[in-house]
Structure formats: C-alpha cells, structure tokens
Amino acid sequence: MSGSKGAKLVYRPVGLIGGVLAGVVSGAIFKQVWKRVSGEDDAPDALQSEYGMREVVLAAAIQGALFAATKAAIDRAGARGFTKLTGSWPGD
Predict the structure, then answer these.
(1) Dihedral of CA 30/34/63/66: which sign?
(2) How far apart are CA 6 and CA 37, in angstroms?
C-alpha cells in the first residue's frame, strides 16, 4: 500500500463505524429537537396519514441536516485521530 490510497483503505472501517455512530447520535439529537419544536414524542413518518406534507417534509429536513452535520463532525474527528496515529490524512 502506498500513499493516500493505502490510508483511505485502512481508514475505511473507521469511516464505517463513524457513519453508524453518526446515525445513532443524530437520531438521539433529532428526537430531542423534534420534541421541543413540536411538543410530540415522535416525528411524523411519511406514510402516516394524520400528518400533513409540511410536517413530514420539515421533520425529514431537520433530521437530514442533523445527520449530515453530526456525520461531518464525527468524520472530521476520526480523520484527525487517524492522522495522529498514522501520519497520513485519510481523505487526500
């Protein structure tokens, strides 16, 4: 393995674990945010007829934004830790 291709390959399991962790963390954050915003325990599902399009799309947008931000933060922290251990940045 040489250079950045090797670093990317070695980093791949770290990135996968980070993605799972981001899903768990962002899900917990979203649940709390939705509870405060809507006063309801659960967010609307796209197939629940009792919710309007606006509520369903708003919930999905908030959830998506939180997941993307959480994943970026976890990926960045993982890359920094990987670089400290190996001396190689996994994304280059």
Answers:
(1) negative
(2) 45
Structural domain boundaries in the chain: 3-86
Contact in structure between 90 and 76 (CB atoms under 8 Å)? no
Listed residue (64, 66, 70) closest to 19, CA to CA? 70
How far is residue 50's CA from residue 66's CA, in Å, rounded to a whole number?
25
Give the integer Cα–Cα distance in Å for 76 and 84: 12
Question: Which residues fall within 8 angstroms of residue 78, CB to CB, at 6 or more apart?
Answer: 11, 14, 15, 18
The sign of the torsion formed by the CA atoms of 86, 89, 91, 92 equals negative
**5-47 pLDDT per residue, tens:** 777 888 888 889 989 999 999 999 999 999 998 899 999 999 9
